[in-house]
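We now fix the convention by which a protein and its fold are recorded. The integers have meaning only within a learned vocabulary of local backbone shapes. The record below shows the convention in full.
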Amino acid sequence: MARQVAFVTGASRGIGMACAVHLAGAGFDVALTARTVHEGEAREHSSTVQRSDTRPLPGSLTATAAAVRATGQEALVLPADLLDRASLGAAVARVQERWGGVDVLVNNGRYIGPGHMDRFVDTPIGLLDQHLEANVMAPLVLLRECLPGMVARGSGLVVNITSSVAWTDPPAPAGEGGWGLGYAMSKGALHRVAGLVQLELAGTGVVLVNVDPGFIATERMAQDMAAFGFDASAGAPPDVIGVVVAWLADGHAAEWAGGVVPGQQLCHDHGLLPGWPGPVANPV
């Protein structure tokens, strides 16, 4: 059988790690990108300009790679930064050189840093640029790199992890249970990519979908977001979205082409994660 390859951004923890592991369980070798290579690395992850936070977050590419390999599939660790387009191009080139191409691209990673939970008047315009670069332009860079091979092979799947912030207003201002403009407008822009590009790719065998994860209890949500009004314990586990992405990659994506997959509801309706009680309320 031909090698099946998935490329996952933001794969050091959370939804990205879950997608990588479940795709491996579905028979994919997985290329893993993120900034954190080893456990304990200190990086800025404060959501506000008001203070810095460089405490290490749980998770790393090394840990995800070990989990992928434990399924019997291969893992390729590719440190990259969504704010560095050259690093993204180099990562895809490495996969193409070593494994021949990318069959499934999961645009999961996003901007992490100040401006996420700041009000507009307190957010430097440069931080809004960084939201757009990481959350919109970086996925487009990867899409441009991966699409030619998918079209040539007559098959491929692109999963953009979207968010309901793309089409709903928050219940409160940023920092008080709501979120900042940079996060919402950049997710809104990414959200429009699948539908428009899918029209251009009709008949090629390539499918683009948005996956709306809902409220997920990630490691960063647990460590960072209580101060901003979000209770991580109320979220669904990342595996919910991991199994959905693997299910889509296993031949079920076509009916969702160009559309939005309600991740938690689909997982529940199809019984993809035995023992999980079902969708949780979204804090919007």
User: Anything to note?
Assistant: The radius of gyration is 18 Å.
